[in-house]
Amino acid sequence: MWKYSVALVLAAAAFAQSPKYGVGRAASPEEIRGVGAIIAPDGTGLPEGSGTVAAGREVFAANCARCHGEKGAGDIGPQLVGGQGTLATAKPVKTVGSYWPYATTLWDYINRAMPFDKPGTLKPPEVYAAAAYILNLNGIIEAGQAMDAKSLPKVKMPNRDGFVSDPRPDVGPKAR
Amino acid sequence: MLGGMGPSAGVQFEPGVCHERGAAMKNEKKSSRRQLLHAGAVLGGGMLVKAEPGSANGSLGTPLGPYGERSPYEKAVRWRRDTKTPETGSSFTPLADSVGTLTPSSLHYERHHAGIPDIDPAAHRLVIHGMVERPLSLSVAEIKRLPSVSPILVLECGGNSGAEWAAQTAPDVQRSFGLVSCSEWTGVPLSLLLSEAGARAGASWVIAEGADACRMERSIPMAKAMENILVAYGQNGEALRPAQGYPLRLIIPGWEGNTNVKWLHSLKVADQAYMARDETSKYTDLMPDGKARIFTYQMEAKSVITFPSGGQKLPGPGLYELTGLAWSGRGRIERVEITTDGGKTWVKANVQEPRLPIAFTRFRLPWRFDGREAVIASRAVDESGYVQPTREELIAVRGVNSNFHFNGIKKWRVRADGTVTNVEV
């Protein structure tokens, strides 16, 4: 593999203690928060608040159903519900319920990207609620449950163990 | 003559024979005379019948202008697949109309998930935070002050040619292979910026995020971040185009386009991959056993014939220069082979030097079309020894539902009447 000459010199210095160029200013906590929430699969970054499946039904009807259908069957936006058990068939249906390995991704993505035409406008409790509703539609959590920073990372998605690392090259003379 | 041209090969400006840049000087006299003769023949015919304003006919042309535009006679444009939400979708580079190895910025393929933001570079900042000693906030001007590099690199969408998994039916090379382009990118090594912030022990991933409406997010292993990633602000000699991430984007040599986060505003240093939607729900490759490959970042060796290609028509039997593009996310193209008999025999194409790593490599080969139907295709081999597979070889291992990372050999059928189509229409 090739590298840039500058990168070569600096590669070893990633974990070095003192800056060489001293550019930029210290990023303030407000500035870092201002970038927006970034959620890890262990729940790092999840904010306070919670949302029930029942509240999620309302949030979804008001903000999501016109594109994803009332029950998440898909329309202008992709299908969000169903498809479990289809991944190894000739017609796999990949949805939040059948394919996504982590429930935290659902919170992260709704919070940053949905509703598609007004992204970033939902409050954290509404995002928890919408996520809870979609998880319930997929039969992953019970109708009486609420989602928050503690419970969401604990949700075991059906396809949690469905991913493998990249084995390529997998064809031809160089196949492993 | 059909063999590959080595670096010492001389220059011939015969039609259909590629010439090599380094040696061009020696034969300048001979070649320029021939080119003149050729040009004269073409122009002479035109001037007798037409008097265009500003051509050599006694009238002046238009005055000088501040920012160039192409000739109004040139019509090549990106093709966009219709989507119900036009802010998410892709537009494809017109590869059949491209010459040489660089893609004009205006024709670079696009893939956006929430539209193109309008960002004032004076107000834009890149925040580096998470597991670092010194969380940093950098202006675009500060980034431009740092040591920079300008590699020429191909950029290919992880979903390029995705329709080929199901059937080779896309009518032309633009729609089947056009989510790939090649530019010169200028920027600062990401390793330099990370060193300035000082990653803490245990840091193993960098989570990149864009400032577009959906804040596009991808996880990048620290090892790659320290190897050769760029925080780029320049493309083909000027600032990035808005559609290409103005004012800042990641350029990750050899990796699927989606990881090259545009409108970059945040780099979070972390100890785990964040499993973003676009690295779990999308850009993962579903195998026949129901398991999906994740973090399939690298784009493998690929090539395609751009002339003659789908939708074109050869005017009749005769000698043609067959040409196309090859590239590999693993490095240099070692050679390109061409078949004109549906894969029974292969000959080495002439490859344009210099062959840059992870960049478009132009190949050419003279070919006599004898008026009989022919199936033509190209096959690239990269410096790692990886051979571009057939579509059938790929499907044998991965099935037809993996959606992404298709790099199978592309066949075109040249019919007896000269029309060129896909092999499955």
What would you note in describing this structure?
The complex is a heterodimer of chains A (176) and B (425). Chain A has 6 helices and 4 strands; from the N terminus they run αβαβααααββ. Chain A is 31% helix and 6% strand. Chain A has a two-stranded antiparallel sheet with strand order 2-3. Chain A has 2 domains: 1-36, no CATH class; 39-162, Orthogonal Bundle (Cytochrome Bc1 Complex, Chain D, domain 2). With 176 residues, chain A is mainly alpha-helical. Residues 1-12 of chain A have low confidence and may be disordered. Chain A is globular, with a radius of gyration of 21 Å. With 425 residues, chain B is α+β, with helices and mostly antiparallel strands. Chain B folds into 2 domains: 79-293, Alpha-Beta Complex (Sulfite Oxidase, Chain A, domain 2); 302-422, Immunoglobulin-like. Chain B is built from 7 helices and 24 strands. In chain B, the strands form 6 sheets. Chain B has a 5-stranded mixed sheet. In chain B, β4 and β5 form a beta hairpin. Chain B is globular. The two termini of chain B are 34 Å apart. The interface between A and B is large, with 71 and 89 residues.
Short description:
Chain A has helices spanning 5-11, 29-35, 53-63, 65-68, 103-113, 124-137, and strands at 25-26, 50-52, 146-148, 163-165.
Give the termini separation of chain B.
34 Å
Topology, number of strands of chain B = 24
Radius of gyration of chain B, taken over Cα atoms and rounded to an integer in Å: 23 Å
User: Largest chain-chain contact?
Assistant: A-B, 71 and 89 residues
Q: Name the strands of the widest sheet of chain A in spatial order.
A: 2-3
Q: Report the average pLDDT across residues of chain B.
A: 90
Structural class of chain B: alpha+beta
CATH class of the largest domain in chain A: Mainly Alpha
Any idea what the shape of chain A is? globular
**Rough shape of chain B?**
globular
Count of strand segments of chain A: 4
